[in-house]
Amino acid sequence: MKILFVNASPHSETSHGYGLAVEMIRSACRTAHSALVKRDLVSTPLPPITQDYAKAITSREPDVSLFDVSEQLIREIEMTDALIINTPMHNFTVPAALKLWIDYVLRVHRTFAVTPEGKVGLMRDRPTFVIVGSGGFHSGERAWQGDFLTPYLRYALASIGLKDAHFVLLQGLTHGEEAVADALQRAREEIARHPLFASDNTIVS
Ligand SMILES: Cc1cc2nc3c(=O)[nH]c(=O)nc-3n(C[C@H](O)[C@H](O)[C@H](O)COP(=O)(O)O)c2cc1C
């Protein structure tokens, strides 16, 4: 089992979602042949999209050296069997660091093709777990704000072929210790139902 772990939380290791991701990685990677590829979008920020890159992706004969960053990020996905993404909700959607990763990974003629029926993903599907940390609530009975993160990210991942996406919500993280413990408990129960983390692979903190 090879896992790509993408972190987009500015709190990195102290983020609740990051801790949960580490538990998931430990649970899934118990065999000797397991491997982990880490991509921390906060400690190692990606360069902004330049004019040259923007021109290259729409050019018929691009200078391929301009795709180096994009290629590296795409290969990190290609070399792994499953993805775990830890992201906070920032102003109802993905944080800028994760948006930049998306802008490099979704590349025409490389990870998706444009057809008369629309964009078609060119990547092999693989389980993708997205841990979404939010201060408040955007789903369920207590929801009081819009959620442009989960539908957007689900759509973006599906457009390159990553359709087996599971969103694990950690809501109410700024509502005190009890709310945090409750969110983590629900998330662990949900994750343990997936075969990658199930039964003898019980999630332990
Ligand atoms: C710039 C910024 C914008 C935020 N926007 C939202 C928001 O729209 N909705 C929400 O519920 N929480 C929002 N929050 C709170 C974070 O989602 C919350 O702190 C969460 O715990 C972050 O998860 P993390 O600890 O894994 O980074 C925002 C935080 C920051 C820093």
TrEMBL record:
Cofactor(s) named in the record: FMN
Q: Which residues form the Flavodoxin-like fold domain?
A: 1-193
- Give the catalytic activity: 2 a quinone + NADH + H(+) = 2 a 1,4-benzosemiquinone + NAD(+); N,N-dimethyl-1,4-phenylenediamine + anthranilate + 2 NAD(+) = 2-(4-dimethylaminophenyl)diazenylbenzoate + 2 NADH + 2 H(+)
Looking at the record's lineage, which domain of life comes first? Bacteria
Keywords per UniProt: Flavoprotein, FMN, NAD, Oxidoreductase
Known partners and oligomeric status: Homodimer.
- Name the chain's protein: FMN dependent NADH:quinone oxidoreductase
Look up and give the organism this protein is from.
Answer: Paraburkholderia franconis
Organism taxonomic ancestry: Bacteria, Pseudomonadati, Pseudomonadota, Betaproteobacteria, Burkholderiales
Which gene is annotated as encoding this protein in its UniProt record?
A: azoR
